[in-house]
Specification:
Layout lengths: L1 H35 L2 H6 L5 E3 L4 E5 L2 E7 L6 E11 L15 E8 L2 E8 L6 E3 L4 H10 L4 E10 L5 E5 L1 H4 L22 E6 L5 E7 L3 E16 L3 E19 L19 E7 L7 E6 L9 H5 L10 E5 L5 H12 L2 H6 L6 E5 L15 E6 L6 E2 L2 E4 L4 E10 L2 H13 L13 H19 L20 H7 L31 H11 L8 H15 L30 H23 L7 H22 L5 E3 L11 E3 L2 H15 L8 H4 L8 H10 L6 H9 L7 H12 L1 H4 L6 H18 L11 E4 L9 E3 L8 H8 L21 H7 L9 E4 L7 H18 L5 H20 L1
Parallel strand pairs: 7-14, 16-17, 16-18, 18-21
Antiparallel strand pairs: 1-2, 2-3, 3-9, 4-5, 4-13, 5-6, 6-8, 8-9, 10-12, 11-12, 12-13, 14-15, 19-21, 19-25, 20-21, 22-23, 24-26
Length: 894
C-alpha cells in the first residue's frame, strides 16, 4: 500500500515537470531550427526573385542582381562585351553597335570576397617569353599579374557549397567606361568633330533583364545620362540632354585551351592584328610578335581534306540577317555573306559561310548576345556601313562579328552610281535606283563588310594594279572588275566613256587579292605543328607573289598624310592623271544631260542639288589624286629579296605631267558653273571660283617635294624645278603678253598672297610641316564600306582620319599562349617577323629650306608685273597694278 501511494505521488510530482520539459524542448527545437536556416535561405526568404540558370545562376531581386558563381569557374578566363540593344536617340549610338573593347577578366576568391581581375586590355602591352630561364619568368610574373578591378562580399554559399553568391549590381549598373553606349563618331557628335561630356544618372539606371545559357550569361542594363555636346570648346550643341540606353552585357566563358593555333601576321598582307612583346635571352632587346585576327576554321574530316576533297569546317561562320531590313535588301545581303564561300572553296572548304534570317521561334536567340553574329539594320541618315569584330585575346581568334548597315548607305550608292557611271548606265539616272542595281550594289557592300569581319583590312592599292585603258576593255573588265580586291575603295568605273560597249562598271564579286588573302589567313598548314613552323610556308607563299601588282597590299592613308598615289581611296587605275581626264569628260557629259534625264523625276530639284554637290566632290577628287603624285612616294612593306622598294619617289615626268594637268583644270573650271543646271539650284557664289581659290592656296607647299628630292636627288622633281614650272603656269598670260582670263586673275591673286606669306620669315604658320607615311602597318580602324557624306570637298579624306578607332579590335594577351614551342627553332623563326612596324609620321622641317627660292619667285613676279602693268584691258591693268602694290608693300616692310 505504501509502495502504491509512493508511486502515485511520484507520478503527480512528475506531471508538471514533464509538461515544462516539453515546452523547453520545443523552444530548444525551435532554436535549433532557427540556427540551421542557412545564409543562402535567408538571402532569398520572403522576397520576390527571378532566377535563371546557366553556366552561372543569376538572381534578380530588390532591384539587385546576384551571381551564384560556381567555384569550378574561379580563375577561368572570360570575355565581357557590351552591345547597345535600345537607345532613346540613335544619333548617339546604333542598336547593335559595340562601342567599347572587350573586357578580358577572371573571378578569384580572396578570403570572404570575390575579386574580378582584368587579365588583359588593349592598352597594356602583353608580355611573353621564349626563354626557359626561371628567373626571367619569375620576374615577368611579378610585373605582369592581373590587377583587381572590383571586389564583392560573399553573401552566402549555395546549399551544396559548390558556388558563392554575391551582389554584382554595381558592376552592371555603374558608370563604367566599358559599359557606356556612346559612339564617339556618332551623328550627334558630328562624326567626331564635337566633344561629348556625359553625367551618369545612377538613380535612373537599373538592371532590366537577365538571361543565362550553358556557355554565357546576358544582363541588360537600362542606363541614363545627361550629355553636353560641345564643338571646339566653345559652341554648345546640347546641354544636359537626357539619353537612355539599354546595354546588353554578355559574359562568355573562354575554353581552357584555345583550339586554334595563332598565325603570324605578314605586313604585306592586310589583316587586322594583335601583338605580344617577347622577352628573350637569345636575342638583344624585346621584340613585338604580330598575329592576325581570324576565325577558327578547321576541317571536320582531316583525311578527306588531305585527299583534296571539299570538306565542311568544324565550326561554320554563321551570320543572322536582321528581319527589319527593307525586303529588297535581304537577298543581296545573304548573297554578300555567302560570296566568301568561293574563297574558302579554293582552299578546300565548303559551307564555311552560312546566312540565316533572325529566328522567330527560338527563345534563346538574342541578336545582342555575343554568341550570335548579326547583320543589323540601322535606320539613320548616315551613308555608311561597318564590320567590326571581337577576338579572343589569347590567340586572336575572332569570336563575334557584326555588320551594321546604315539606311542612307543606299543614298551614297545612288550618288556614286550616278556620278561615276551615268554616262553609260541608263538605269542609274534616277533618284530611286531600280531593284537590280540595288541588289548588285548591296551585295558588294555586304561582301566588303564581311571581308572585314573575316579579319581583312582595306587594300587601297588594289585598283592601281589595273592599267587605265583596261577600264575601257570589256573583256578585261568582265574578268577582273574595277579592282583586284573588294576591300579597296574602288567603287565604280568612272573611266569608261559613252559609247564603250559591254564594259563592266562594278567591282568584282571577289577580287584576285581577296582569294590570296583568305588563303594566307585560313588555309590549314597541316605539316606544321606550331605557329613557328608555319612561318617558312607563309613567307614563301607571300614572296612568290611579290612583284605581281595584283597581290600588292596598300595601306589606307589618312587625309593629312596621303603620299602614295598608288594607294588612295576612291581612285581607279595606275594613272591618276589619265583617269582624271577620262573622269572629267564623263562629268561634263553627265552635267550636260542632267536636266534631260531628271526633269520628269526631280520636280523640285532636290535630287539635282545633291548630285551636283557630289559631282563637285568627284571632280575635286580627280585633282587631288593627281596632286598626290607631286612629291609622292610609292610605299611598300619590303622584305629582303622583294622587288618592291620600301619607298620609291614618283618619277619626275609623272610629277610634271600631274602639275600640268592640275594647272590646265584650274584655268578651265567654268564648266562646273553650267548655268543651265545651277540656275535652278540653291543660290550661291561660283563653285568654280571657290575651288580655284582653295587649290591655289596649296600649290606653294614644297615640303613633300623637298623630302622626295632629299631621298632621291638624282631622279626627283626638285623644289626649284617645281617652282619654276609653277611660275610659268600661273603667270603664263603675263609672260606671253596675253590678257589674262578671269580665272587666271583669281589664280594669280591667291597665289601671290600665299607666296608673300610663305616668303615672310616672320609669318607664323598654323602648320609647320607636312607628315609623311613611312613603311608600316595601318592605324587600327573601324572597317567601313563608305564614310559619311559631308558638303566639303575633302569630306571622304577627312572622315578617313576621323574613323581611325581601334576600340573595336581587341589586342592580344600573354595568358595561355599555348601553342608555341619554347625552343630554338621557335626563336629563330620569330626573328623573321620583326620588320612589322607601325605607321610613322616624319616631320619634314630640315629638308625644306626653300625661302630663298620663294624670294627669287617674288622678284621674278615683280619684274613680270612691272613689264605688264600698262598692257591689256582696263581690268588686267588694274589687276597687275594691284598685285604690284602687294609686292612693293612686302619689299618695303622687309
Amino acid at each position: 500500500m505504501k509502495i502504491r501511494v509512493l508511486i502515485i505521488l511520484v507520478a503527480l510530482l512528475c506531471v508538471p515537470f514533464t509538461s515544462e520539459a516539453r515546452k523547453k524542448s520545443k523552444k530548444k527545437d525551435a532554436k535549433v531550427e532557427e540556427k540551421t536556416e542557412s545564409k543562402y535561405e535567408k538571402l532569398f526568404k520572403g522576397k520576390q526573385c527571378t532566377t535563371v540558370k546557366g553556366m552561372i545562376i543569376l538572381h534578380k531581386m530588390d532591384q539587385k542582381v546576384y551571381m551564384e558563381f560556381p567555384l569550378s569557374l574561379m580563375e577561368r578566363e572570360m570575355l565581357l562585351g557590351a552591345t547597345v540593344s535600345e537607345i532613346s536617340d540613335n544619333s548617339n549610338a546604333l542598336v547593335g553597335q559595340k562601342n567599347n573593347p572587350l573586357v578580358h577578366i577572371k573571378f578569384s576568391l580572396a578570403d570572404s570576397a570575390v575579386q574580378i581581375k582584368e587579365v588583359s586590355n588593349e592598352r597594356k602591352t602583353q608580355m611573353i617569353s621564349d626563354t626557359k630561364d626561371p628567373n626571367v619568368k619569375a620576374a615577368m610574373a611579378k610585373g605582369n599579374f592581373a590587377p583587381v578591378i572590383d571586389a564583392y562580399k560573399i553573401e552566402a554559399y549555395s546549399p551544396d557549397s559548390t558556388a558563392v553568391v554575391f551582389d554584382v549590381t554595381k558592376f552592371f549598373v555603374g558608370n563604367n567606361s566599358w559599359l557606356q553606349p556612346f559612339d564617339p563618331y556618332s551623328q550627334r557628335t558630328y562624326y567626331g568633330m564635337a566633344a561629348r561630356f556625359v553625367k551618369y544618372q545612377k538613380d535612373l539606371s537599373y538592371v532590366d533583364e537577365i538571361k543565362a545559357f550553358e556557355d554565357n550569361i546576358s544582363i541588360t542594363s537600362s542606363l541614363s545620362y545627361l550629355q553636353d555636346i560641345i564643338y571646339m570648346g566653345i559652341v554648345m550643341f546640347a546641354h544636359n540632354e537626357p539619353v537612355t540606353a539599354k546595354v546588353n552585357c554578355s559574359l562568355v566563358l573562354l575554353p581552357e585551351k584555345p583550339s586554334m593555333r595563332p598565325r603570324i601576321a605578314d605586313p604585306r598582307v592586310g589583316y587586322f592584328f594583335g601583338y605580344k612583346s617577347n622577352v628573350s635571352t637569345t636575342q638583344d632587346g624585346i621584340k613585338n610578335i604580330y598575329f592576325i585576327n581570324r576565325w577558327d576554321v578547321q576541317p571536320k574530316d582531316v583525311e578527306a581534306y588531305k585527299k583534296g576533297e571539299l570538306v565542311e569546317p568544324v565550326k561554320p561562320i554563321v551570320f543572322y540577317v536582321d528581319n527589319a531590313f527593307p525586303e529588297e535588301w535581304k537577298e543581296p545581303i545573304r548573297q554578300g555573306i555567302l560570296e566568301w564561300n568561293k574563297a574558302f572553296e579554293k582552299i578546300g572548304f565548303k559551307n564555311v559561310m552560312v546566312a540565316k534570317d533572325f529566328p522567330t521561334n527560338d527563345p534563346e536567340f538574342d541578336p545582342d548576345n555575343i554568341k550570335y553574329n548579326c547583320v543589323r539594320y540601322c535606320p539613320i541618315g548616315m551613308a555608311n556601313a561597318q564590320g567590326p569584330s571581337w577576338v579572343d585575346p589569347r590567340n586572336n581568334e575572332i569570336i563575334n562579328a557584326s555588320v551594321l548597315v546604315y539606311h542612307d548607305v543606299i543614298q551614297l550608292v545612288n550618288s556614286m552610281r550616278f556620278v561615276q557611271t551615268a554616262q553609260l548606265d541608263e538605269r542609274v539616272r534616277t533618284p530611286k535606283l531600280p531593284e537590280d542595281v540595288v541588289k548588285e550594289s548591296m551585295r558588294y557592300i555586304i561582301a566588303h563588310e564581311i571581308g572585314h569581319t573575316l579579319g581583312l583590312t582595306h587594300n587601297m592599292a588594289a585598283s592601281a594594279a589595273i592599267p587605265v585603258e583596261k577600264y575601257r576593255d570589256a573583256e578585261f573588265m568582265a574578268k577582273y572588275g574595277t579592282t583586284m580586291s573588294i576591300m579597296d575603295y574602288a567603287r565604280y568605273n568612272y573611266i569608261a566613256q559613252p559609247g564603250d560597249k559591254g564594259v563592266k562598271l562594278t567591282p568584282p564579286d571577289l577580287g584576285v587579292y581577296d582569294y590570296y588573302a583568305i588563303e594566307y589567313g585560313y588555309k590549314p598548314i597541316l605539316e606544321a605543328n606550331t605557329t613557328a613552323e608555319e612561318i617558312p610556308v607563309l613567307r614563301k607563299f607571300v614572296s612568290d607573289k611579290a612583284g605581281d601588282p595584283k597581290y600588292r597590299y596598300g595601306k589606307q592613308q589618312v587625309y593629312y598624310g596621303v603620299f602614295d598615289p598608288s594607294s588612295m581611296t576612291e581612285d581607279l587605275s595606275d594613272d591618276p592623271v589619265k583617269a582624271g581626264e577620262y573622269g572629267i569628260k564623263n562629268l561634263k557629259y553627265i552635267l550636260a544631260h542632267m536636266n534631260e534625264w531628271l526633269d520628269d523625276k526631280d520636280h523640285d530639284y532636290t535630287y539635282r542639288q545633291s548630285i551636283y554637290n557630289d559631282m563637285v566632290t568627284q571632280y575635286t577628287r580627280y585633282l587631288t589624286n593627281a596632286q598626290t603624285n607631286i612629291g609622292g612616294f610609292y610605299i611598300n612593306e619590303h622584305y629582303v629579296g622583294d622587288p618592291y622598294a620600301t619607298c620609291k619617289v614618283v618619277p619626275k615626268e609623272i610629277q610634271k605631267r600631274s602639275l600640268a594637268f592640275i594647272m590646265k583644270e584650274l584655268k578651265n573650271l567654268e564648266w562646273i558653273d553650267d548655268i543651265n543646271v545651277v540656275k535652278n539650284l540653291e543660290f550661291g557664289g561660283s563653285t568654280a571660283r571657290l575651288m580655284l581659290k582653295e587649290f591655289s592656296g596649296t600649290l606653294l607647299n614644297t615640303k613633300r617635294i623637298s623630302l622626295a628630292a632629299y631621298r632621291e636627288p638624282d631622279v626627283a622633281y626638285t623644289p626649284r624645278e617645281y617652282l619654276d614650272d609653277l611660275y610659268s603656269y600661273v603667270w603664263e598670260s603675263a609672260i606671253k603678253g596675253r590678257t589674262p582670263m578671269a580665272s587666271e586673275m583669281l589664280l594669280q591673286t591667291v597665289f601671290l598672297e600665299t607666296l608673300l606669306k610663305e616668303a615672310d620669315p616672320l609669318t607664323e604658320k598654323m602648320f609647320q610641316s607636312d607628315y609623311f607615311l613611312l613603311r608600316s602597318n595601318p592605324i587600327p580602324e573601324i572597317p567601313t564600306f563608305a564614310k559619311i557624306k559631308m558638303p566639303v570637298y575633302e569630306a571622304m579624306q577627312m572622315m578617313n582620319s576621323l574613323s581611325q578607332n581601334s576600340a573595336l579590335h581587341a589586342n592580344t594577351t600573354e595568358k595561355n599562349f599555348l601553342n608555341f614551342k619554347r625552343d630554338n627553332d621557335f626563336r629563330q623563326a620569330l626573328n623573321e617577323t620583326f620588320g612589322f612596324n607601325y605607321i610613322m609620321y616624319v616631320e619634314n622641317i630640315s629638308n625644306d629650306n626653300q625661302k630663298h627660292l620663294l624670294h627669287r619667285m617674288v622678284s621674278r613676279i615683280h619684274n613680270t608685273l612691272k613689264a605688264n602693268k600698262n598692257t591689256g584691258t582696263y581690268e588686267s591693268k588694274a589687276h597687275y597694278n594691284y598685285l604690284l602694290s602687294l609686292i612693293e608693300d612686302f619689299l618695303r616692310d622687309k
